[in-house]
């Protein structure tokens, strides 16, 4: 029987997460996208804490434009919060999503904001 779209993404997510992990010095930037919104978190996996987060639902993020433009704005917002927390280098976790479109726009926005990965 064929796997559903969600089951495929979860399989890919498990494979990706088996290879990467975040620490306090090199946190993991985890991305989640729904049909309407996009979310990003900087996570320290050793202590199990979220260091910073940003989403398209926040008031500080410019909510005008296409979903791709909003994703880039979320990337810049998470980069600004990371800089404020003293974080410059990260590990990118696409969370099983294809690195294309909104996920790529968020990553490019984070790079423009000064994060290195």
Automatic annotation (TrEMBL):
GO cellular component: cytosolic large ribosomal subunit
Keywords, alphabetical: Ribonucleoprotein, Ribosomal protein, RNA-binding, rRNA-binding
A family per Pfam: Ribosomal_L18p
GO molecular function terms listed in the Swiss-Prot or TrEMBL record: 5S rRNA binding; structural constituent of ribosome
Role of this protein: This is one of the proteins that bind and probably mediate the attachment of the 5S RNA into the large ribosomal subunit, where it forms part of the central protuberance.
Record's subunit section: Part of the 50S ribosomal subunit; part of the 5S rRNA/L5/L18/L25 subcomplex. Contacts the 5S and 23S rRNAs.
UniProt-listed NCBIfam families: L18_bact
Protein name (database record): Large ribosomal subunit protein uL18
Source lineage: Bacteria, Pseudomonadati, Bacteroidota, Flavobacteriia, Flavobacteriales
